[in-house]
Each structure stands twice: as structure tokens, then as C-alpha cells.
Amino acid sequence: MDRNRQTPEPEELIDLLGDWSSGEGPLYRRLTDAFVRAVRSGDLHTGDRLPSERRLADALSVSRATVVAAYDALRGSGLVETRRGSGTRVSGGAVVHRVPADGRVRGGQATAVIQRLVAQPPDLISLGQAAEAGGPDLARALLHLVREDLPGLLRDVGYHPAGLPALRAAIAAHHTAHGLPTVPDQVVVTTGATQAVALSAQLYLGRGSTTIVESPGWPGCLDVLRAAGSRLVGVELDSDGVRIDRLATALAEHRPALLYLMPTHHNPTGTLMSAGRRRRVAELAAEHGVTVLEDSAHAAALAPGQAPPPIAANPAGATVLTVGSLTKAVWGGLRIGWIRAPQDTVARLARLKALHDLGSPLLDQALAARLLPALPALAPERARILREQLATMTRLLAEQLPDWRWQAPQGGSVLWVQLPPGTDARVYAQVALRHGAEVIPGATMDATGAHDNYIRLPYSFAPETAAALVSRLSAAWTALSRSGGR
Asked: Is this model's pTM higher than 0.85 or not?
């Protein structure tokens, strides 16, 4: 038994159990089977103490009798043992099949989100993805690529760790048009924005480092920073972006290696940081000598002038890395992102990129090079569609879940919804899963664990999917209310 290992809390245990309530058979049997899988895979270790029946029942929003029956079955199989004064623990006789590391981040918050993305359970409407299907503009660009560009691309050797030159030039022109003068040598292309964050974290962070982040934020990116060995310190936002007074205090107190922000249509609040706030962030970063990683994954969907210039455009002397992506602007399946940074930093990032994959897929990059210059012309139509989707979602919510509250987002494609006081969104998420909806609780999106009565709700669904989703959320809310879970 590892005496230094911390016994999992109910919230962590819920992630390890996964979608335990799906499948067939009595609920207690499904819970028993999930514990068996967790122990035999090594997710639960010998000596780990399980929560009391009542604590686990509350966290899972099931009856105490369900947990009692599951624990009885586990004791009967010899997998756990209960002793007076020490509770129920995983037995030393449990058969464990040790497996290599599987991507979970110790202390992370995105385990369940990532697992469902990998498993893709059938008939589950996920609130973990705010993405749309590819449109006709993507199809037309692909056809032009095949007819006009493919012969030349096939003559290329195919290895471009920093990115296809044509795409680097298109990205540089895109940033220049949005108020950030850029040359191609200041760009490295990545396989999506997540890899851009991961490469930046690998370059600047290490075990024992500190990163300042916004609270709330997106758990997938927060876990990428944790995986690099960094401790996260959350700073709250207001309607104008990250709070400058709290940021100044955190910078002085923690001396971080990195400051990670989403200034343009923040995920999940939709906040658009003002030009003045961006300037103050750059000034504080220069004053404290901290590198800024600004995640502008939503900015590519905007026409010039729809958002203030990036933080990197402010002449304050700070080192700023600007992350972009085509996922939100074009299609989730086009995994093209990038980092705009000083040229010497780009050279270091390109070497790290080469170690990962020798360069992103060439045909995807060529397609992105065709699409990127056309995005400003597509922005008005995309904005119109998002307005209609927002109107549909808010109407459905007002009709079926009138106790829920939210502020109209300044942009992006998600609502940051506040549940009534006294509601634990993690408990509601367990009930929603049993009704076919994956809910992302607010506490998993906050490095401080706050916002535990919020959920992130994308609205970029087709009308029929939005109707089905809200119907499932409403049914789950009714079930939670009847059980006394709120």
C-alpha cells in the first residue's frame, strides 16, 4: 500500500467510475461492475478508502440502498473489506492488472470530459463540445484544393515542422488584418489549439511552476497546464475580462511562469476583454516579467474590427504568445491551430513540434491556407446563425427550466448557466447522464473549485437537437428535484 497516496474524494471517484449508470441490469449491479473495473485496471489501489454509503449516494444522486447493495456485493467478491474505525477499503487480495499511464492528469478536472470524447457513448448529447458540422464552404475549398493544389503538394516532401509556408503566410496576414502586424517567421502551425497550449506549456512550465489562469476556464486546457507540472492559481473575471486588481495581487504574490488567458469570447462566460483591459494585462506582464499565453481560438471566426487587437499588439514589452485555431470558425474535424510568437520563440516551439509529430498533416494545412483568407466574408452569416441558435436555446430554457439564470454572452457559442441556490451541479450532472445528456459542472471548470452551481451549455445545436437536449435536461432536473437533491 502506498502511504503517500491520497484516498480519492467522491468527485474524483465519479470520474474514475465513468458512465457507470449506462447499460442494463439493476442500478446497484452497474455500480458494482464499475468499481470492479476501476480496481482491476489500477485506477483504485489497495488500501484506498471508499466514501461512506451516504456520501457516495449523495454525490451520485442515487438512493443509499443502491450504494449499500453495491458495497455488499464488492465485499462478497473479496474486492473490498470493511473494518470498524477504518471504513471500507480496497482489499489487499484484489486482482489488479497494472496498466501504463492512460492520460489522466493527477488532480485534473477534465477526466470525464476526455473519456466521453474517446468513448463517444451512443445517444448521448454532449455539452462538452461546442462545435458544428462542416459547411458547404469547406466542401468547395476541398474540391478546389484537389483540382488545383494537389499535384504541387504531392511533389513536396511533406515535412514542415513549423508549418506549410503558404499557411504561415496566411496566418501572418490574418493577424496583421486584425491589428497585430505579423510575418510568417513568427508563426508555428499546430494540430489544433490544444497542441498549441501543450507546446507552450512544455516550453515555459515545469514541476513546481505556477500558472495564473482565469476562474472559470476550460478544464481540458487547465489539465494540459497541470500535466506540465504547474500549479494553477485562479483569478476571477468581471464583465470586462480578468480583474486587474486581483491579477496584480496574484502576480506579485505567486511570481508565475505563465499567465494563461482567453481574452476573446472567453470559454465559458463569453466575455470579450476590452482594449483597455488588454493593455493593462500587457503592462502588468511586462512589469512582472511573466509570459502571456493568450488563447484566441474563437477570434478566427471574427471579421477585423469585431474584437480589440490581441494582447500581443500592445507595446508594453511583454512576451506574448497568441494561440489561434480554425476549429470554431470552420469545423472541429479540421485540426489546424497555430502560435504567433517572437521569432526566436517560434524556432524553439518548432523543435518541440518536430519531436511530437514532425509537423501537422500537409493536406489539412493546404486546405486551411485556402479557407483562412475567406473567413472575414463568412463572419456575418456565421454570426446570424449563432444569433438564431442562441434565440432557440434561450426560448427552450425559459419555457422548460424557468429557474435557471444566465447573462447574454458577448460572443462565442456557450451559455454560462447558474442553477438555483443550493444546487450542486456535479450531482445534477450524474442525473443528467442517466437522461442522455452530458453536463459539464462549473466546479470542474474552475481551478479554485468555485462555481459549483453553474453549468456550461453550448447553444450551437441544430433546432431539433436543441429541443431534444433541453427536454432531457428538464427531465433530469425534475428527477433531481423529486429526489431532494436540490
From this structure: yes
Q: In the predicted model, what is the mean pLDDT of residues 34-58?
A: 87
**In whole angstroms, what separates CA 138 from the centre of its chain?**
25
- pLDDT tens for 99-154 read 555 555 555 655 566 555 555 666 889 888 776 777 888 999 999 999 999 999 99
- Residue 180's Cα: distance from chain center in Å? 26
Other Cβ atoms within 10 Å of 150 Cβ, number: 12
Nearest CA among 332, 335, 337 for reference residue 364: 335
Longest dimension (CA), the chain: 75
Number of neighbours of residue 449 by Cβ within 10 angstroms: 13
- What are the DSSP E strand ranges found in 268-373? 291-295, 320-325, 337-340
438 contacts 128 by C-beta, under 8 angstroms: yes
Residue owning grid cell 436540490: 486
In the DSSP assignment, the letter for residue 410 is S
Can you read off the three cell numbers belonging to residue 32? 458494482
pLDDT of residue 41: 77
Residue 457 DSSP label: E
Eight-class DSSP state of 401? -
What span, in angstroms and rounded, lies between the C-alpha atoms of 103 and 114? 9
